[in-house]
Amino acid sequence: MAHQREPVKATTHTASRTLATTLIRQLLEGNHEEGVRLSTERDMAQQYQVSRHVVREALKHLEALDMIEIKQGSGVYTKDVLVNGGMELFEYVLFHDEHRLDSNALRDLLVFCRLFIPNVLRLAAQNRTPEQLAEMHAALAERPAMLSDTSSFNMANLRLLRIISQATDNIMYQLLFNNVGRILARLRAVVPIDRFAPLIEQHDLESVVRAIEDRDADLAGLLAQRLAERSQTAVNELLATLPDGQDLPVQIIL
Q1: Of 189, 179, 192, 191, the residue nearest 93 (C-alpha)
Q2: Does residue 45 sit in the same domain as residue 109?
Q3: Is the dihedral of CA 147, 151, 155, 161 positive or negative?
Q4: Are 68 and 95 part of one and the same domain?
Q5: Do 114 and 237 reside in the same domain of the chain?
Q6: pLDDT in tens, the chain (254 residues)
Q7: Dihedral sign, CA of 70, 76, 82, 88?
Q8: Which domain holds residue 164?
Q9: N or C: which end of the chain has fewer CB within 10 A?
Q10: Which among 90, 103, 111, 47 is positioned nearest to 183, based on CA atoms?
């Protein structure tokens, strides 16, 4: 009997995550002001053609993200996303759905990376250990062989980013950098290699790692800033080809 229940649980979990994603994007897009009472569980179940249990699980997820307040006996009320939201909403902001990237959010992400990543590299250059430096060189050496396989290439990049973030010896930087790294990897997975590979060449990263090896924090930060600016310029040029106000469709990036 227990074996028979497993598919049901998996289906319910998938349905609740799908509904949660829909509701999160509605809140992020400003479809509800702060303090608005949402529909009842019964009405949501009818609207989205799911069970009330699925609705309840989806709402618990939004509550955990501090996007809504569930008041027993009163209802579910929206909260100010920009006041209460955190890094866990990055991907929801950036990806409308499997078909669209939010162009404005992508621009904001690139500005953030240009300001944030150089500081991570500076701190890594100051605090890295010999063991971490050896791991950086090993990860860097693996990267070229994986260029033709997007998934493996992303894993190689993530490994290098993870080592660099650990080298900061600062847990806050590590957690934040890990989150950003996953988002950048997801972007990289849907951007054709022949369009973006020239942005960060192997020799660029080798120069960054050499600066970290020399404990030259200023140079490491400067090199990271230049790479981020180059990426920002290239993506802005791509976005400039779109009609005003249009998001980046999958047809362009797949």
Answers
A1: 179
A2: no
A3: positive
A4: no
A5: yes
A6: 444 433 334 455 688 888 988 898 888 877 677 889 999 999 999 999 999 999 999 999 999 988 999 998 899 999 988 778 777 787 777 776 656 777 888 888 889 888 999 999 999 999 999 999 999 999 999 888 887 776 787 788 888 888 999 999 999 888 888 788 777 777 766 655 445 445 678 899 999 999 999 999 999 999 999 988 888 888 788 778 777 767 666 545 43
A7: positive
A8: 89-253
A9: N
A10: 90
> 3-state class of 130 per DSSP?
helix
Here the CATH number for the domain that contains residue 220 is 1.20.120.530
How many domains does the structure of the chain reveal? 2
Same domain? For 77 and 99 the reply is: no
Cα 220 from Cα 226, distance rounded (Å): 10
Query: How far apart (Å, rounded) are the C-alpha atoms in residues 200 and 202?
Result: 7
Clarify whether residues 28 and 151 are in a common domain.
Answer: no
For tokens 């693996």, what's the residue?
142
Tokens of 80: 């100010």
In a 10 Å sphere around its CB, with 0-12 CB exposed, 13-18 middle and 19+ buried, how is residue 254 labelled? exposed
